[in-house]
Amino acid sequence: MTERIGVYVCHCGTNIAGVVDVAAVSKWAGEALAGRGVVIARDYKFMCSSLGQELIQKDIKEQKLTRVVVAACSPHLHERTFRNACKGAGLNPYLCELVSIREQDSWVHTDKVAATAKAKAIISGGVERVIHHEALEPLRVPIHPATMVVGGGIAGIQAALEIADAGFPVYLVEREPSIGGHMAQFDKTFPTLDCSACILTPKMVDVGNHPNITLMTYSEVQKVDGYVGNFAVTVKKKARYIKEADCTGCGICWEKCPWKFVDEVFEAGMAKRKAVYTPFPQAVPKYPVIDDQTCVYFSKGTCKACQKFCPTNAIDFEQKDELLTVQVGNIVLATGFDLFDVNRIPQYGYKRLANVYTNLEFERLCNAAGPTGGNIVLRDGKTVPKAVGIVHCVGSRDQNYNPYCSSVCCMQSLKFAHLVHERTGADVYNFYIDIRTPSKGYEEFYQRLLEEGTHFVRGKVAEITDTARTPEEEGKLVIQVEDTLIGKQRRIPVDMVVLSAGLQARHDAKDVAKMFGIACSAENWYTERHPKLDPVATMTEGIYIAGCAQGPKDIPASVAQGAAAAARILGKIQQKEIALEPVRASINEEQCSGCRICNSLCPFSAILFHEDKMVSEVNPALCQGCGTCVAACPAGAISGTGFSNEQILSQIEGLLLLNIPVKEAVA
Amino acid sequence: MKKYAYYPGCSLESLAKGYHLSAMAVTKEFGLELNEIKDWNCCGSTAYFPVDELLAYTLVSRNLALAEKMGASDFVAPCSACYKNAYFTNSYLQSDTDLADHINYALEEDQLHVDGSLKVRHLIELFIEDVKLEEVEKKATHPLKGLRVAPYYGCQLVRPRKAKEDVENPRYFENLLSAIGAEPIEYANKTRCCGGSLIITNRKAALSMVQILLQDAVIHGADVIATTCPMCDVNLEVYQEQVNREFGTHYSVPVMYFTQLMGLALGIDPGRLGVGKSELASLQAKAVAQPAESQ
Amino acid sequence: MTDTPETKPFEPVIIGFTCNWCSYRAADMAGTARMKYAPNVRLIRLMCSGRLDPTFVFKAFAGGADAVLISGCHPGDCHYATQNYKAMRRFYLMKRVLAQLGIESGRLKLLWASAAEGAIFAKEINSFVEQVRALGPLHWNTNSPEILDKTVKEEVIA
Fold first, then answer.
1. Would the CB atoms of A657 and C44 count as touching at under 8 Å?
2. For A86-100, A316-330, C106-120, which range has the lowest pLDDT when averaged over its residues?
3. Hey, where are the domains in chain B?
4. How far is C109 from chain A (nearest CA, A)?
5. Contacts of A627 in chain C (CB under 8 A)
């Protein structure tokens, strides 16, 4: 009982005081726990306010406090606030404990007597615990100035450019042969109707030419080791079978290649490509790849036409995949999205009915570099549709598929409607649940579409069929829908249907998240540190997320997130080192018997075994402080700072009021 | 010989006698023993549930209890409405102990008890799952070559969804028809409702639903429509005249139970299948069922 | 003391261990959403459910708790990758040991709750409290007569 403890009970306005009798609690703490070292107990309206904090600081100095217990809101909100307050008064911040009597007590219980009693028990537990706290210093680790950006879409490109422009090296890793992502597939972007490639390609070229960016395309991350500031990332560069040093990008190889295959990735199945190809003309880097899955040389050993005609002898069929390990300090995951698979809604007739398109297919159709040169025609390649139906919310806002809204499809559907008006003069029907046009210029875009004479039908499309019931429906695709605004079922005959399929997380998002040590939501979007206040950081220090990988969003939001992640990283790089929370395990060498039970328990491989001394040791920089090894050690040789055995056992005693002798309390 | 507790249902005693006869004849050929449940009662069809749910469940449960008492493991119903009622009552008995208690309380009066331990099947499932289609093909000595059949699943056979099966485009009926040598046609409305008992309460609405089905089948070249439910069969067959009068159409499509078509393919005498002379005649007018030998 | 222990309903005292990332946040979420649950559980925050040393559980019972709740992230979602599996293993072992010591298995509960599952957390606590109430007070004998006299102590803070 050599500690001098200050207890501070917050009213939090009426949030706590309305249920818990804070004055009585504070009085009780000062009296019943005096024997445990409490020298002063106060209650105050808002402990987190500057006045509240000053109260604590004054007491620390005048009462010579060695420990502080604040009973208020959740530590996830204000632990740092009170720790800083103590630090300001000269007390080590880790000697301060914040216990929650709000989220855990006043907000969840209605019985005032029971809530007050529970508050006393909670404070008692906090007091017992804090006695065993130690003064700790945060661990400082250096930050490697290089950054890795995974994903070469618009979000990744933005992040890479910002960091590189600030003068630091960036590795940009992209799975496809070229950067650009989904944005490179689009024709026009809403609401300005800028040509997507025209605004994207200058950025792509910047990335390709940037002296600080090492572009690794046709590559995938295999393994991530290390911790914030010091990651070692292993990347597999798939063999392109092209010697980049010799290739000039002249294109003779793909001209001469006699084998054509349907391009399911970039062209969304709408056009063919060769076995040696670049996905699109403005690809960065300009070097093609040979797809060893379709190239005849790899299956039969014949052809080699590309090699015969290559003027610089840049084709190398013997090229192997390369494994490279790079050192980086921070990582941005900007891996983008996949499209909802519309085959899951067979009522919409995709594949069964020829002229039903997905949104990506339609983008390629509209694209001037696409399969029809930008002409909106049916699958036969020549018929111009006279009526087009555009279905919103395919697979989104639907309990049977994805319950969330995909954010961009309304604007995309309006954009499609505009393009159809412009290029065909056809009748356009948009089938929607709500029209979601939140950002700048979006609502005005919708008004424009109204003025263009688009027919808007509020209702979910029930089915798309080619079974005609009347002569007008012969040879047409019939959209069966309930028009909820007039309360009638309608059958609307059209020539072409575009399904605005929703956005989904990448099919391998969960595996990627595991590899990088971050979490995913139930729908496999990467989990941000805080949904409101910290959307680009994750729970894992050093790993950031940006773009649609974090959740469906439009291009400006993706760019903003890419830039935000870059700014955070640049801030860390500038500081040259980062302070890590000193919550981690350490092994007492003398007590360790070398049984090695702890070694295999650590998911971060933070425990090393010294063969010479036959003892284990925890690497404090790798240790994340989970405490599993502390619990597992049979000799009790491992202690966990911040959550030691003494602290927790004492807290249990305090919660059960074993610390107060009955006679004293009753008297 | 695989044994099943057989629940014919009210329609098979009267209007759908042909279904019952053909079911008995065809299952015998494949070694499937349908043992009719003694003293079974009406299942309440679609009419009773909106009136009093608890009593309706109890009505169905009595049949399940009788089947369990028989020592059967499978409860087979040829009518889709009876099937649907039995299937879902059976599964609710397993998941809702409160409901099960109430029902058993009533059944005790009859010295009966229901566990919900049966497997409830529709008659058509037996030919898809218990008899391999290769077997069916082998036994179809008189394949219905050239006969274009519209497989009409009807709605209560596929919905409500039970597991992860395809309710938009199931294929098993088509496969069965191919196995007996017929040519199943493709048409979109094969799982669309025929109107059911709406034909009694709102005839006009039901007739338009029937008209949609008939049109779709006819446009896609059906010579005959095959059904799996007496209600569907009645609506499509008996009311064709009224549809024609109402909509000015001229449909004249034979409608038969799938077991009757199977029976014909197996070479069973049409009389034993409840296939009338005129029905057979109109079938033969469309395409002749040739025995394999005479090809 | 105006009420004898027989007339007041038995209020179990339950110690709960939560993990910092999921279940503690679930409790916070229940609080933020003002969901109401029984006041019988007193929570301790660990960094991870894998930190749970069986000694803590025995200490809680020996100290007078009538039941213990262990909660953490769903399997597969542990912030430290796989440590909640270790908690799970220890839980099953502890249950067997406690049974040998005469403690009913209904007094130790394992609950997985993600940070978004405040409602589930509240509901599970309520049902656990009722379950323990039905089992009655543990009154696990330890040496100190003062600890036996728990009802007096609870009066003190009420």
1. no
2. C106-120
3. 2-123, 133-286
4. 17
5. 46-48, 50-51
- Do residue C45 and residue A113 have CB atoms under 8 angstroms apart? no
Do the Cβ atoms of C70 and C94 come closer than 8 Å?
no
* Mean pLDDT of the A148-155 span: 98
**Cβ-defined contact of A109 to C152 (cutoff 8 Å):** no
- Overall fold of domain C14-157: Rossmann fold (3.40.50)
Residues A346, B169: C-beta atoms closer than 8 Å: yes
Chains B and A touch (3+ CB pairs under 8 A): yes
**Looking up tokens 């499309």, which residue turns up?**
A461
Check residue C157 and give its pLDDT. 59
| Residues in chain B with pLDDT values less than 70 | 285-295
Q: With contacts defined as CB-CB under 8 Å, which chain A residues touch C77? A: 519
To the nearest whole number, what is the mean pLDDT of chain A? 93
Beta strands at C41-46 and C14-19: parallel, antiparallel or unpaired: parallel
In chain C, the residue whose alpha carbon lies closest to the alpha carbon of A632 is C53
Chains contacting B (3+ CB pairs below 8 angstroms): A
**CA-to-CA distance for B159 and B167, rounded, in angstroms?**
7
SS3 A493: strand
Amino acid at C102: G
CA distance A434 to A396: 12
Compare CB distances from A652 to C48, C56, C80 and report the shortest one's residue.
C56
Residue A468: closest CA among chain B residues belongs to which residue? B216
Q: Distance from CA of residue A542 to its chain's centroid?
A: 13
Question: Between chain B and chain C, are at least 3 CB pairs below 8 A?
Answer: no
> What distance separates the 2 farthest-apart alpha carbons in chain C?
53
Task: Say what the pLDDT of residue A1 is.
Answer: 53
Q: Which residues pair with C8 in a beta bridge?
A: none
State the CATH class of domain B133-286: alpha beta
Strands (E), B189-285: 224-227, 255-257
Domains (range + CATH), chain A: 5-136+647-666 (3.40.50), 149-231+327-336+506-580 (3.50.50.60), 239-320 (3.30.70), 340-503 (3.50.50.60), 585-641 (3.30.70.20)
Asked, as a colleague might, if the bond just before B143 is cis with ω within 30 of 0, I would say no
Q: Which of B196, B199, B190 is nearest to B232 (CA)?
A: B196
- Cis before A285? omega within 30: yes
- Which pLDDT band holds residue A623 (cuts at 50, 70, 90)? confident
Taking a C-beta distance cutoff of 8 angstroms, is the pair A40, A7 a contact?
yes
Helices (H), A132-177: 154-165
Give the C-alpha separation, C50 to A633, whole Å. Answer: 12
Q: What is the pLDDT of residues A541-554, one digit of tens each?
A: 899 999 999 999 99
Q: Which two tokens stand for residue A198?
A: 């025209």
Which residues of A fall within a CB distance of 8 Å from C25? 76
The CATH T-level fold of domain B2-123 is Glutathione S-transferase Yfyf (Class Pi); Chain A, domain 2 (1.20.1050)
Tell me the residues of chain A between 324 and 353 that have a Cβ less than 8 Å away from chain B: 346-347
Instruction: Tell me how many residue pairs between chain A and chain B have CB atoms under 8 A apart.
Output: 14
What single-letter DSSP state applies at residue B73? Answer: S
Complex-level ipTM beyond the 0.90 threshold: no
CA atoms within 13 A on the CB side of A637: 19
Beta carbons of C90 and A645 less than 8 Å apart: no
Count Cβ atoms below 10 Å from residue A542 Cβ, excluding itself.
Answer: 25
Distances (CA, A) of A161 to A170, A217, A350: 9, 16, 39
Report the predicted TM-score, pTM, of the whole model to 2 decimal places.
Answer: 0.82
Find the residue in A nearest to C119 (Cα).
A108
Chain B residues closer than 8 Å to A467 by CB: 187-189, 216, 219
Low-confidence ranges of chain C (pLDDT < 70): 1-7, 141-158
Cβ distance of C31 and A108 shorter than 8 Å: yes
Q: Is the pLDDT of residue A60 over 60?
A: yes
